[in-house]
Amino acid sequence: MANSLEVRAILDLPSTSSATPTIPQKKLSVPTIRKPEGISRELYSLIGPSSTTLVAQLAKPRLKQKPNLNAGSKIKWEWRPFKNGGRTDSLQLKHWVKASTEADAEYPFAKYNIQRPKYNDYSLEEYTTHLEDAKWSKEETDYLMNIVTEYDTRWYVIYDRYEFPGGVARSMEDIKDRYCSICRKLIRSRPWTGDESSKNALLSSFSFDKEREEMRKRYVASLENRTPEQIAEEEALYMEIKRLEQNEKRFKRERDDLLRTIGGIDSGLPDVVEDEMQLTGLSSSELKRSKKKGGDLDTPATPLLSTPLSRRPTMPPQNTAADRQHCITRTEIPGATSATKAAHQPAYLRSFKLPYPKAAIAQKVTQALAELGVSHARLVMPTQGNVALLEGLLDATSTLVDMKKLVDKAEFDIQVLKTRLGMQGAAKAEETDGDVNAMDMDDGNDADADMDGDADGEGEDGRAQSVVSTRSARSRKHNRRSMSISSVDTSATVSTRAGTKRQRRG
Amino acid sequence: MATERVRVRGLNIYRPIIYGNTATVLNPKQREALAPTAPDHTHTWTVAVRGAASAPDQDIVGGADDISHFIKRVTFKLHDTYPNPSRNIDKPPFEVTETGWGEFEIQIRITFVPDAGEKPITFYHHLKLHPWTATGEPEIPPIDVAAKLGPVHSWQYDELVFNDPFQTFLNTLMAHPPTPLVRSRRKPVPFHLAHMGGLEASKGGTPEFTQQMEKEEAERLEEARKAIVAEEERWRVKLIEREKELEQLQKLVAERAQ
């Protein structure tokens, strides 16, 4: 049998690759690209050659150069003796030194050997005049000063080394206190070259408050010695305090906002937000300077508060005459905030904003004013001044009505008590009578004589009647007064007829 | 956007205006002229909004100033029985003249210039045709009597208050300061229901608003306030007495109770 290969060869047909048996072909390898530097092959194949930064960066690892530690010549060190300028004796010491430094160079640390002014050189007279102290003998004082000078006011060392034979135990505060007080007194007493301020500076450097120092050290010690529970407790308290303060601040802010929205521009609160942002330092001082309306001279700066810094309206020079001419009133500027911006009052007719009495007593107020010939609802000339006057009038009338209410209430209470007293025995009757009559005498501005006459005339018998008569007399007195007020009285004294009174009580 | 539209804070500016009407009885000739269309009209009247100060040479109430620099349009809404009851007046003089026989409420709406940035305000005026009476009760006199009494005036003084005006608007207003009212009266005083006592003073011609009126009202208010305060004092004295009495009685009651 001819296989396909041979058939094809005979027929000169091209051999199909699929039909041909698998001739082991050399596997074509993927064209190899040169391996990328700096990053792994896999990573590179992920990123691709286009990512310039990464490839460029990672291609060359830039490491810090190794410091060239004297890669040059070698340095020689020498073991040399040296002189220390700070020493008083001539002790010779040796140390390693670079060969390059010159011999007999100054010892570099000698300059740190500073000398403090000595205060232990006081004379005997000085001691007896200024420095005496009951708790310190002279010997101990001398010992102290010397030791301080020797140990250069290093107090812990001094305290440690302090051991005066035959002396009491001295705490560090004690010796510090004694030393500082001595220094201060010496500075003050000795003649001072130089100016006053430097002397004072030196003096203040020697100020030492023993009490405070002791307290401070106690505090620090106790702070150190807190148990962990105490520390935790303190932390908790601290957090609580912080939280409470924050809450308080928040409440205050909310309260102010609320008051501002309710009260509007007149709530009297300084506006907060935008001013602080825009004009931090200026705003508070300018708020203090801004004045109320009514002819005061505003500084030209106050309108600036209300506008952003960049745009300032050109305000004409403000004075009261021009203001009156143009019918301008200036009010206190609370500052520009979102709250007041939203609360812009629209234009209005002044008579629309006349003050109105409170609802509860409105009717009585109206009555009272009507009797006086004043209308509460309308003004002939509703100018600013007149509106203010009307407001004052309404306030006065309101207080008047309240006052009358109080009086009536008191009278009613008196009546109640009198009836109770009346029921509790006739023996006291004359007493109350006398009281009531006496009060009637004092009472009232007009018609006193009439009243007495009435009280006597009508008193048929017993105090019940006389009480009634005084009441009627009083009411009659009301009548004699201006018509107006009586009509506004509450029910207690409305009826002015003695007869009805008697019936009511009967 | 808002470069010029900045409000000047803390500043109120007001302008005095008057609004109201004047009414005259129609004389027989006028009535004849009207006979075909409106035989029952008895009066001719003019309702207007003007500046408060009166010009000395003119015979109208107020109107010395031009108010069109801040008022753009005034709309008078008349009674429905009038044709086109909503009368828009876009240029001065802001007034409407009509004839009629009855009194009614006229709604007046003032629209401000756009520069002001304010909404229109609305208010009412009761058209007054018949003369004022002492008691304030309506009392319509017969025609011939009324004709002799002359024109009837009913005007109200008021002040338009602008809060925190825009700077540009403020400049416009400042460029037209209002003429101040004349100090004292030289013409009859406009009558007002709040001050019935001024009835006599209002008769005899075209009235005029004066500063004196304002002062007089201020005095009246002040007098009233003083009277009230004095009264309050008296009542306070009474209260103190009553309270003392009450205390004594209470003590007595307490004693009795023991």
Automatic annotation (TrEMBL), chain A:
InterPro entries: DAMP1_SANT-like, Homeodomain-like_sf, SANT/Myb, Swc4/Dmap1. Residues 128-183 form the Myb-like domain. GO terms for cellular component: NuA4 histone acetyltransferase complex; Swr1 complex. Residues 283-323, 424-506 are annotated as: Disordered. Keywords: Chromatin regulator, Coiled coil, Nucleus, Transcription, Transcription regulation. Pfam families: SANT_DAMP1_like (PF16282). Residues 482-498 have a biased composition (Polar residues). One of its GO terms (biological process) is DNA repair. One of its GO terms (molecular function) is transcription corepressor activity. SMART domains: SANT. Residues 440-459 have a biased composition (Acidic residues). Residues 234-261 form a coiled coil. It is found in: Nucleus. PANTHER family: DNA METHYLTRANSFERASE 1-ASSOCIATED PROTEIN 1, DNA METHYLTRANSFERASE 1-ASSOCIATED PROTEIN 1 FAMILY MEMBER. Component of the SWR1 complex which mediates the ATP-dependent exchange of histone H2A for the H2A variant HZT1 leading to transcriptional regulation of selected genes by chromatin remodeling. Component of the NuA4 histone acetyltransferase complex which is involved in transcriptional activation of selected genes principally by acetylation of nucleosomal histone H4 and H2A. The NuA4 complex is also involved in DNA repair. Belongs to the SWC4 family. This is SWR1-complex protein 4. It comes from Favolaschia claudopus. The lineage of its organism: Eukaryota, Fungi, Dikarya, Basidiomycota, Agaricomycotina.
UniProtKB/TrEMBL annotation, chain B:
The lineage of its organism: Eukaryota, Fungi, Dikarya, Basidiomycota, Agaricomycotina. Belongs to the YAF9 family. It is found in: Nucleus; Cytoplasm. The keyword NAD does not apply. Residues 7-176 form the YEATS domain. It holds the Pfam family YEATS. Component of the SWR1 chromatin-remodeling complex and of the NuA4 histone acetyltransferase complex. The gene is YAF9. Keywords: Activator, Chromatin regulator, Coiled coil, Cytoplasm, DNA damage, DNA repair, Nucleus, Transcription, Transcription regulation. The coiled-coil domain is required for assembly into the NuA4 complex. PROSITE patterns: YEATS. This is Protein AF-9 homolog. One of its GO terms (cellular component) is cytoplasm. InterPro entries: YEAST_sf, YEATS, YEATS_dom. Component of the SWR1 complex which mediates the ATP-dependent exchange of histone H2A for an H2A variant leading to transcriptional regulation of selected genes by chromatin remodeling. Component of the NuA4 histone acetyltransferase complex which is involved in transcriptional activation of selected genes principally by acetylation of nucleosomal histones H4 and H2A. The NuA4 complex is also involved in DNA repair. Yaf9 may also be required for viability in conditions in which the structural integrity of the spindle is compromised. GO terms for biological process: chromatin organization; DNA repair; regulation of DNA-templated transcription.
